[in-house]
Amino acid sequence: MKPAGDALSRYRAKRNFERTEEPPGDPGRSGNRLGFVIQKHAATRLHYDFRLELDGVLLSWAVPKGPSYDPTERRMAIEVEAHPLSYARFEGRIPPGQYGAGTVIVWDEGWWTPEGDPQQALKAGKLVFTLHGQKMQGRWELVRIARGGERQPPWLLFKKRDAHARPHAEFDVVSAWPDSVLAHPLSEADRRAVFPAVHAPAPAPALPVSHDDVENPGEPPSPGSLRGARKAALPATLAPQLATLASALPAEGEWRCELKLDGYRLLIRIARGRARLLTRSGLDWSDRMPHLVKAFAALGLNAGWLDGEIVVLGPQGTPDFHALQNAFDAGRRTDDIVCFLFDVPYADGHDLRAVPLQARRAWLRGLLATHATRHDDGLLRFSADFDAPVQTVLGTACALGLEGVMAKRQDAPYVSARTETWLKLKCRQRQEFVVCGYAPRSDDADRVGALLLGVHDAQGRLVPAGNVGTGWSAEQARALRQRLAPLEMPSPPFDGQAVPEAGTQIGRRTGRKRPPTRSETEARWLRPQQVAEVAFSAWTPDHRIRHATFIALRDDKPARAIVREQPRLPDTPQPMSRPLKVTHGERVLDATSGVTKLDLVRYYAAVANRMLPHLQGRPCALLRAPEGVGGALFFQRHGGPGRAPELTELDPALWPGHAALLSVDHADALVAAAQWNAIEFHTWNAPARHMDRPDRMVFDLDPGEGTIWPQVQEGALLVRTLLEELRLACWLKTSGGKGLHVVVPIVPRWPHEVVKALSKAMVQHLARTLPSRFVARSGPANRVGRIFVDYLRNGHAATTVAAFSARARPGLGVSMPVAWDDLASLRSGAHWTVQTAREHLSFQSVDPWADYARTPQALDDAMAAMGLRPASVAS
After folding, report:
1. Region labeled Disordered — which residues (predicted)?
2. Which residue from 15, 151, 185 is spatially nearest to 83, judged by alpha carbons?
3. Which sequence positions are flagged as catalytic?
């Protein structure tokens, strides 16, 4: 090997560091581990730069096709000049005219361990090593395939056979994980989905206790020293901050997770050193837990509000909800109840609700640590948080048998409402239901056989939600019967005509009445006063819970407050839950490009995180092509026999007279649809939750015969100018075909007819003002040499191809969101294809549509400017 001082001479000789931002670098010194990096480099040709740290530099190879986990795939690796260690974090553009001009991202990074002496192995031309990266793991080998002496010696890079090895047809790492690991770190859940046997969940830790974590604590500072604290009198009452159900965390902000404890929420008010223990509904439970009242008095707070959860810890150190309930039964002792505290909205004359969460919790932790050194009774504990990926913490929580995790944004204030700065992520779906009835066991009338459940809908009406028949012992079933019997009433408690009575509900497809279940036939209906907590696997399309298990009755929540919990749609959707499997993946879908079904499925798997926000919760029509682009094409709007089960069937009542519409709500559904031969995804302008009120307005620029591409670009700018004059911001995307789409996010206040009438008036205005460029009438003969701006996309049940969707046309173009500044660089509406779109996205550092979802706009001014009145339009 060359001395380190000479190893970078070739690197420096090729670069002008006054023009390029690449680091000049000096030879470094290895730490305890040898690092590696793979940089994805879009130069004259896309390739991957594979770099291993050794002797203070990064030894480097250019791998044109990138690595493969398939041991049978030998990838060419051309040895190039060594790079400085500081190059390992380089991302950015190398300017034109410079060596390697193009864009660089850090595709993977980590550390490596050689087998044997690495210098001797390199000299012999055979290096075996293990990679410990985010994407690259397991044993690999580099083999030189020339005698030596060449300026750029050729090597082969390939995977050794081990637990990580995967056939290329099953997993292509460069297409599955194409992004920068600096901008988009790979989660443990992502890896576990591909390598489930290798990446098992981490061993479950014991439940953290705050006073074991802090050594020699001092007195906490005055709460008045916290930024955002203000002097104020002790509030007489305080409503708790509530969390929103979610399936993933937003991309923005700093978040940390706590374990979701299985107990009762408790707010503690301390006045003149005396504590009152209040449930979230305001009930005073102080007399029920005198040992905790005494413990809070010993905290040393003269006045305060604390927020926490009371639990009873089981033999494994995890909360046991049944033990907590038993502790409150008559004749039982509550001394085993402990309180985990997680927030402090008020302390000693200072309102802390505007103090960032992180600072509030740090102060609370210090207070509890001081208390623990004086009173080592373990009754008051700090709810620890974890600086780890949410999926890792969630996996641990599930392994512990806990309900899930609470994710909290660290800079957020304390707000007495349900917020999206506190999120709850659950191992199973689990929530409270109103107990509306019960059915006795057929073999023992003194025991409950099933509970009939309900929730309140958006209008506050009590509606059925299914039933639960497991989760209790024989003794508990008898106790339930005794507790519920005094609440019996002669008829169902469900409100008005919101839902037909048992046995008269209309079937989803046939329109026939479904027969009543045995539970409904034998139901004893109840006054809706009791609340039950139930775990279940999913909601059915007709709004019943599936595979339900009873947890417990709840005394701390009023029945009138129980609604169906709707998971918040994540800004960063969940990864696929299982490895990709494709049938007939070798089938060519497009003869002009050679794209196969496997290529298309992999494309959709790779863009799922970006595409799902445009699909989730929105009716979707799939354009299917079982024979490929050249064969028969048909739209699939509804479910039916043979449909991909991962697709969601929406409630048929949303569109009366029609079968259930489909929606694509998660990555598995998107990939399953592609496996089902769907190429295009077209969505409604309104989401399912308010299908009669669209939340976007679309202008589809459709060029007629003889219209050249620069006219389409100019047309898009003219549409934007008109919208800006009407004070409407708009976003641009390619159509994937011949034209462009201009999209306006709007407040979902007006029906489709109003939005369509406004868009039609705008298009007619363009056609009158610029008749040589625009036409307001559809039909090929009307738009020769001109552009028809299609306003018909805004009608009821009309659809537009979704962002990132492929098009079933030769070349398989893609509908791609773009910045207005990039309009001039586009070559056509199919500028990107299935073969090029994902690579383009991997180098994109800024989302051109980042503000789209945050910019809903009113149409009042635009309608007034176009001479429209909503009332007259709707009529």
Report:
1. 1-33, 205-231
2. 15
3. 260
Amino acid 241 reads Q
**Band of pLDDT at residue 399, cut at 50, 70 and 90:** low
At 214, give phi and psi (nearest 5°): -115, 125
Structure confidence at residue 237 (pLDDT): 92
The DSSP secondary structure of 293-305, one letter per residue, reads HHHHHTT--SEEE
pLDDT of residue 244: 87
Give the whole-angstrom CA distance, residue 82 versus residue 6: 10
Percentage above 90 pLDDT, the chain: 60
Residue 764: count of CB within 10 angstroms of its CB: 16
Distances (CA, A) of 584 to 457, 604, 646: 44, 16, 19
Kindly report the backbone phi and psi dihedral angles of residue 662, in degrees, each rounded to the nearest multiple of 5, phi listed first: -105, 155
| Least confident stretch, 480-484, 582-586, 863-867 | 582-586
Q: Which helix (H) or strand (E) covers residue 524, if one does?
A: strand 524-525
| Residue 834, pLDDT above cutoff 60 | yes
Distance, in Å, from the CA atom of 171 to the CA atom of 68, rounded to the nearest integer, reads 9
Average pLDDT (14-19) is 91
Q: Which residue in the block uniquely carries the two structure tokens 């998971």?
A: 567
The model scores a pTM over 0.70: no
Q: Are 424 and 260 in contact (CB under 8 A)?
A: yes
β-strands 588-590, 595-596: how paired?
A: antiparallel
Residue 212 φ then ψ, to 5°:
-85, -15
**Are residues 32 and 59 in contact, defined by beta-carbon separation less than 8 angstroms?**
no
Distance separating the N- and C-terminal Cα atoms of the chain:
84
